[in-house]
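Why this split exists: single-chain examples teach little about how molecules sit against one another. For that reason, every record in the complexes split bundles all components of an assembly together and asks for one structure covering all of them. Below is a record exactly as it appears in the raw files.
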Amino acid sequence: MNANGEAAKAAPELLSPQNARLLLDSTEAFLFDCDGVIWKGDKLIDGVSETLDLLRSKGKKLVFVTNNSSKSRRQYAEKFNSLGIAVSEDEIFSSSFAAAMFLKVNDFPQEKKVYVIGGEGILEELQLAGFTGLGGPEDGKKTVELKSNCFFEHDKSVGAVVVGIDPYINYYKLQYGTLCIRENPGCLFIATNLDAVGHMTDLQEWPGAGCMVGAISSSTEKKPMVVGKPSTFMMDFLLQKYHINTSKMCMVGDRLDTDILFGQNAGCKTLLVLSGVTTQAILQDPSNKIQPDYYTSKLSDFLRIL
Amino acid sequence: MLSCSSHSSRATLSAFSHFLPTTSPYFNFSSLSPKTFSPTPLNFGWRAATAPKPRMASTFPARASAQPLQNADELIDSVETFIFDCDGVIWKGDSLIDGVPETLDMLRSRGKRLVFVTNNSTKSRKQYGKKFETLGLSVSEEEIFASSFAAAAYLKSINFPKDKKVYVIGEDGILKELELAGFEYLGGPEDGGKKIELKPGFLMEHDENVGAVVVGFDRYFNYYKIQYGTLCIRENPGCLFIATNRDAVTHLTDAQEWAGGGSMVGALAGSTQREPLVVGKPSTFMMDYLANKFGILKSQICMVGDRLDTDILFGQNGGCKTLLVLSGVTSLSMLQSPNNSIQPDFYTSKISDFLSLKAATV
């Protein structure tokens, strides 16, 4: 017990030949985050391809769970294929897909529209689910005139605003989203995820959805519904396809407050890789309360260890 | 609604050590509860996420409800200085509100000092002086305190080194004030034209000499600026994160509300996971500054504004009398709503009521 009377969580184990074998034997499905685990921007991380092949050869199911809403599942499958890794659409669970599914399971009326502050991926998933999306990258070109005779119009039939990472963010979109949420009765405010920064390119981190969501939260004074990790919303869809107990799943990610927390919330084993946003110093800092079961420097350590 | 904590944040503050940084309205975001999993609270261990709660009568001695202003003379005689907010009090967009010039003249003729404090950082004090002039009001630059000025004044008050630079996510007003105060700046509206390409091998450089990022309302807001500001705050040791204000929405035109400076600040708070130092209302920085400058006692001041969570809270935090006018963003029903916990001393429809509401003549 620690000072608060809680059962203290054991410190994470560094992945070793012994515990890796145990992990492998007790795991039927590996869930991988993408940015910082599989790739960084458009560059594959060393040894990933061979590691995934190894795991597949041992009969393990591979699932990819990403908070990056800029692409749809189909577009992610294309990205994997272009990097030489064979992955099918239905092995991928992106937060863009999650946003569309959230609207579906909550019976969002089809005559209502969805305003998107985010990428093509969200628009495509909405369309696939039968919804009408407005906004997206196109609105990145629109400007605003702040003159007394210029009135900023917005579609009164927008029933939800979905916010995800948006490199084309601008004042037009902030204003449009703000008006929909503040003025359209019952308008939903959905965030694909809250990641502060991420490896959008191989060389450095870039502002993530947490930034765009922060902007809209501030102007609307409202909290969003979060569909991406660490919310376990996507797990429901995963389980519909893979009838495996979550205790036989291992979530592999580079971020404590999304990937590892998601895994823990869902009852999976968790493995942190240090090839992305988290360093060993951050993991071991006393202020860090999230302890994965295991940690290692990168995914390809499996090749070396097994 | 914003609440203020009352601890001094930095040992380096000189005259303004009791300046109150605004605590974050940044939330615990709730997760969804799909059928098989029970809701799990999101726990971002390193982010102080406290949602301000409405005050309950049982836990605080309830502040008396706002009184409709009946005896204007009594209020006028009881103070030496009137601080006015601008948007929704003096003007709406570019139109003067009825009776304002006569009211200001009357107050001056009774020997009252007039000060204008606005969270709008798009213009400098000099540019606001011109706006007053265009509207036929005689107000001098020295009587105006915009949050653009406050940002520069804050940096001066902490002896921000002249060899460090300031990155600005905001408009011309901030740039002009920084220049007047002798600080070197980067960014501003120009960076609104800069584009980025997220492709392999691309690296955004940033100036390692930036020692402060100032964020305010920015109609030219874009991803380049967010990234530049984020890199400075995260990677330049000791880099300050300063917000001119955190207003959610603002009446930039008189016809409708517009997303305010709070949204740009919220974006940077989201990417850096840091809370800014706020120089505008309801932080008392500007109040302390002008009380110090004019040598006035806070109890001798009446703050007049149209917004509860900035103007009135600013006045209350500063220990002044407060008067809410209903000529701007706040309606009587909003003031009297059970969800509202901010009660000014008085309320009235507009400032020209000072001319009509007289003590009953005997």
